[in-house]
């Protein structure tokens, strides 16, 4: 049985197929005190980079697996840090998890059961959990699911118009992702607006290499753009987003491509990279477009058109709009993307203040004119949200003091 955390320093882990992102957070101060990334795990080129209040650097960890990377982390942690609990990002929780969960053998089995729905993510997340539970054996572990926030979607938003057996027998439905980020920036938006989240209706747009938008009604997710997998919805770095499903049959017939080949292309060769032919990085595309590259400019235009169109669609799930929120690497830093998108949304009462949008330090966050619905730029902090969830769950399960 977990006990109350007296020294609330939490480790947040995001384990990928070949990477381990970590952050150590003082939850009472809500401050990251140490963090970093181990890349190319399991290869001769495995390297770690870290940054903390008193140290930063890089180090080679040749052939280190996840367990080895975590052992390295223990040795690298500042001596005055004692990890009291570990929070894990898990991409897919299916319908089983509508909130975070204390990890035990049953929860691990359920995460494994969801692996076919997120084959690129859940197995890696689970491997990170198993390694961390071995290395940090004496502290509680919590799984925080990307999909949990969206389990409040109504059936009209999450059901696909396909044979019912697909849902009943195979769990085919919209799940949505980036839930931790959407929830975090919604809460921050309420603070900036000076209103209770329970009174607000928002649209949040998480724009990075992966992109999704979400309609949030009084703190509850009611619609989102990603689906069964993170491939649906907006144009992304290398993912196509929405396409006509008949394209699968067309490519199979005309090119003889297998299902695996088509899916690989839609996940890894499409999106901004596929449209531009040069990069999946929006910064590189903006620079190339300014230099006259027409394909780069087209990629940006398609990205912004799709974003504006799906934001407009999400409005159908709300009765009003109190604010539009941009977050993620592109949403926070690419002023041109915000401008091109908002110029398409004037019909909804969204009007851009050009000067505010160009300011590098958006401390106030609002880039809209005074007569517009607020358009906020809010940095996301998924690690802090995972730490909050971990701390809250462990404290709620702690035995009462006599």
Care to describe what's here?
The chain has 402 residues and is α/β, with parallel strands linked by helices. The protein contains 15 helices and 13 strands. The protein has helices spanning 66-76, 105-113, 122-135, 155-158, 164-170, 179-193, 246-255, 259-268, 271-276, 282-290, 294-314, 328-333, 335-342, 354-358, 382-396, and strands at residues 9-15, 19-26, 31-39, 47-52, 56-60, 85-90, 101-102, 141-145, 201-207, 211-217, 220-224, 323-327, 375-377. The strands form two sheets. Strands 5-4-3-2-1-6-8-7 form an eight-stranded mixed β-sheet. It is globular. Residues 1-5 have low confidence and may be disordered.
Secondary-structure blueprint of this entry?
Elements (H helix, E strand, L loop, with lengths): L8 E7 L3 E8 L4 E9 L7 E6 L3 E5 L5 H11 L8 E6 L10 E2 L2 H9 L8 H14 L5 E5 L9 H4 L5 H7 L8 H15 L7 E7 L3 E7 L2 E5 L21 H10 L3 H10 L2 H6 L5 H9 L3 H21 L8 E5 H6 L1 H8 L11 H5 L16 E3 L4 H15 L6
Parallel strand pairs: 1-6, 6-8, 9-12, 12-13
Antiparallel strand pairs: 1-2, 2-3, 3-4, 4-5, 7-8, 9-10, 10-11
Helix pairs in contact: 1-3, 10-11, 11-13
Strand tally is 13
Q: If you average the pLDDT, what whole number results?
A: 93
Structure classification? alpha/beta
Strand content: 15-25%
Distance between the termini: 16 Å
Proportion in helices: 25-40%
DSSP helix count?
Answer: 15
Keyword list:
5-stranded mixed β-sheet, 19% strand, alpha/beta, 402 residues
Question: What's a quick, concise take on this entry?
Answer:
With 402 residues, the chain is an alpha/beta fold. 37% of the residues lie in helices and 19% in strands.
């Amino acid at each position: 049985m977990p006990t109350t955390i007296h020294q609330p320093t939490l480790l947040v882990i995001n384990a990928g197929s070949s990477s381990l992102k970590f952050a150590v957070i003082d939850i009472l101060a809500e401050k990251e005190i140490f963090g970093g990334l181990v890349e190319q795990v399991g290869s001769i080129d495995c390297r770690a980079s870290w940054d903390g209040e008193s140290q930063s650097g890089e180090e080679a960890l040749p052939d280190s697996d996840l367990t080895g990377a975590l052992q390295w982390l223990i040795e690298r942690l500042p001596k005055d840090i004692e990890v009291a609990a570990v929070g894990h990002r898990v991409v897919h929780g299916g319908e089983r998890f509508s909130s975070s969960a204390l990890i035990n053998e049953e929860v691990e089995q359920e995460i494994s059961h969801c692996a076919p729905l997120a084959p690129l993510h859940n197995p890696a997340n689970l491997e990170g959990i198993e390694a961390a539970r071995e290395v940090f054996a004496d502290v509680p572990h919590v799984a925080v699911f990307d999909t949990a926030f969206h389990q409040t979607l109504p059936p009209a938003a999450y059901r696909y118009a396909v044979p019912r057996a697909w849902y009943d027998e195979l769990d085919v439905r919209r799940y949505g992702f980036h839930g931790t980020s959407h929830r975090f920036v919604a809460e921050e938006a309420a603070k900036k607006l000076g209103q209770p989240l329970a009174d607000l209706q928002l649209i949040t747009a998480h724009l990075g290499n992966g992109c999704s938008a979400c309609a949030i009604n009084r703190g509850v997710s009611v619609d989102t753009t990603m689906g069964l997998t993170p491939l649906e919805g907006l144009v992304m770095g290398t993912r196509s987003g929405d396409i006509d499903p008949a394209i699968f049959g067309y490519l199979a017939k005309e090119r003889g491509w297998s299902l695996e080949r088509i899916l690989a292309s839609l996940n890894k060769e499409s999106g901004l990279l596929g449209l531009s032919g040069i990069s999946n990085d929006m910064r590189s595309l903006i620079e190339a477009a300014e230099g006259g590259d027409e394909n780069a400019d087209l990629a940006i235009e398609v990205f912004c058109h799709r974003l504006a169109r799906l934001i407009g669609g999400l409005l159908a799930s709300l009765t009003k709009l109190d604010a539009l929120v941009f977050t993620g690497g592109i949403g926070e830093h690419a002023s041109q993307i915000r401008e091109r998108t908002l110029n398409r949304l004037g019909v909804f009462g969204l009007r851009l203040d050009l000067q505010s949008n160009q300011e590098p330090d958006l401390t106030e966050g609002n880039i809209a004119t005074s007569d517009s619905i607020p358009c906020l730029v809010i940095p996301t902090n998924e690690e802090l949200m995972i730490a909050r969830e971990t701390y809250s769950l462990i404290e709620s399960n702690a035995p009462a003091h006599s």
